[in-house]
Design brief:
Structural class: alpha+beta
CATH architecture of the largest domain: 2-Layer Sandwich
Shape: elongated
Bound molecules: histidyl-adenosine monophosphate
CATH superfamily of the largest domain: Bira Bifunctional Protein, Domain 2
Mean pLDDT: 96
Strand order of the largest sheet: 1-5-6-11-10-9-7-8
CATH topology of the largest domain: BirA Bifunctional Protein, domain 2
Low-confidence stretches: none
Strand content: 15-25%
Number of helices: 15
Helix content: 25-40%
Amino acid sequence: MRFKSLKGIHDILPPDIHIWQHIEGTARDVFRSYGYREIRLPVIESTDLFIRSIGETSDIVEKEMYTFLDKGGRSVTLRPEGTASFVRAYIEHHLYNEPPPQRYYYMGPMFRYERPQAGRYRQFYQIGAEAMGVDDPRMDAELISLLSEILRTVGLEGLRFEITSIGCKVCRPAFREALKGFLSDKIGGFCADCQRRYDKNPLRILDCKVPQCIEMRKGSPHTIEFLCNGCREHFERLRSYLDLLHIPYTVNPELVRGLDYYTRTAFEVTTDLLGSQNAVAAGGRYDALVEEFGGPSTPGLGFAIGMERIVSLLKDGFKVAEVPELVICFVGDEAAERAFLLAQELRLKGLWVETGYGDASLKSQMRRANRLGARYTIVIGEDELRSGSVDLKDMGSGEKTTVSLDAEAIAGELRKGR
Ligand code: HAM
């Protein structure tokens, strides 16, 4: 019996893992300078948490959740995103008692039962950030600049920042009515899902991926045309702060988020290089969510970066220099033991050192050193054991340097060559 990973779910192996580590490491550094602290959240939560935050009529909740009953008969779901869990934890641990803004980040797998294709997976990874307690649009601009800085420092260029405002509970009813008015005589031609959403949550119709629905909703009104004074001012100030920070963006009034919890600012970072799965990161404000979950009224906003998508953008230009510093080869049993001990001593000094096992011939040991791409090799034989010195061979230039057969001396020489 041979097992394979599930459809849309992948292993992440070297050399790709180096790109993942590079992105994660860079993101951690940037988060630190913006005052974000890491939070680790469970990958499984009560199903209701996601239904109530992401929205009953969203594609995620209607079609994409990994939901099942646990042995106690409770409905649980593998998290399709991080914000709902974050807000649950924020309230559960009274994090709102810390001085605002409370800024957190997380990294980890999310699960959506989508139709897999390039850039769209059933288990995928996000780096997410959430900033709580401030409704000032300077916070929105700061968050977008943080995102832009992460993407820039990992090495991505030419990304588009698209922003819009989707209003709040004050201005949404007027927009909803205008949208329903626009759709009323066409709705019969929309897919069954959209027809159902027409009464329940017509805004979701704008997010439907069915080609005939996309075609028929062309020319529909935009949230941005219906903003109340508070939302309009918030959006205008956000734009002026983005200008102040020299962050280029475009206003995209057609931008619709697939999750129901958003208010006011919504944004997406897109690229032309990934085909239809063109969003590498996305986010926005959710000023009503904490209160809806029973916490004190607290504004919040955040984003999530799709790891696989930025990994695939970085893949081509990425050079990995992860090779052993030294491969120790040997001839004979006594030399094998010396090599074994020397490898251990050098590893304790923080160097990546390899040696052979069993009774491999010198030729096969050297072949392995070449395959691993080792920077240096040494060969320990009877002569070296007797003389107490060994030739350290630079595998790039072929140059040899004689050093004493001793961990301290070899480590010193290896560090010089770095
Ligand atoms: P989202 O737009 O659903 O937002 O996902 C954010 C990013 O995750 C997307 O732009 C995309 O890069 C990546 N992504 C989503 N689904 C998949 C998939 N099936 N396969 C690969 N990558 C995917 C959220 O998840 C919100 N929680 C973001 C947020 C945080 N808003 C406020 N705070």
